[in-house]
Amino acid sequence: MILFFIDPRNKELGARGIVNLEKLYLSIKKLELKLEDSKNYYELSYNLGIAQINTKNLQEKVFGLECNFEELNGIDFKKGCYVGQENTARMKLKNKIRKKLFAIKSNDKLKIGSDINFNSIKIGQIVIDEPYPFGLIKIVDPDFSEYKDKDLLINDSKSKIIQ
């Protein structure tokens, strides 16, 4: 039996399949699918702003709402009874989300802990480094719209937020 489902985080990531390992290659051939280099998949995921590599750095430091779990269909506000449910519901209800995770594009290698600055104001910090860097960035005070499409400085090098 083969079970396919669309990736619930973003349909552009394609579908996932559950296949018996012994029948994997036969199933791929039978369905006329092709194997793709995982680098292409992770590059697409990065460009969509979905962190998948080196996410251990986020554990116990960032709330699910700050990691875009609501937009990625990772939080159900009707279900309840999950770890962090009370904090998550309170943050959403009182609109207390102050920072979010964003993919960062730079020509230089970025290191975890590096400050992200706009007009000499610290607006965030790199929380995931190479090969696909992400920063935890303020969305209020200053307002995100002020710098979302502008050059940011990280260690004196120009960088941008990937939208």
Q: Counting H and I runs of at least 4 residues, what is the number of helices?
A: 3
Distance between the termini: 38 Å
Strand order of the largest sheet: 4-5-6-3-8-7
In the predicted model, the low-confidence regions spanning at least 5 consecutive residues are: none
Rounded radius of gyration (Å) = 18 Å
Keywords:
163 residues, alpha+beta, Elongation Factor Tu (Ef-tu), domain 3, 2 domains, 6-stranded antiparallel β-sheet, two-stranded antiparallel sheet, 3 helices, 8 strands, globular
In words, what does this structure look like?
This protein has 163 residues and is α+β, with helices and mostly antiparallel strands. It folds into two domains: 1-35, no CATH class; 51-162, Elongation Factor Tu (Ef-tu), domain 3. Helix content is 16%, strand content 26%. It is built from three helices and eight strands, in the order ββαααββββββ. The chain has a six-stranded antiparallel sheet with strand order 4-5-6-3-8-7, with no helix packed on it. A hairpin with an 8-residue loop joins β1 (3-6) and β2. The longest helix has 10 residues, at 38-47. The N and C termini lie far apart (38 Å). The model has no long low-confidence stretch (mean pLDDT 90).
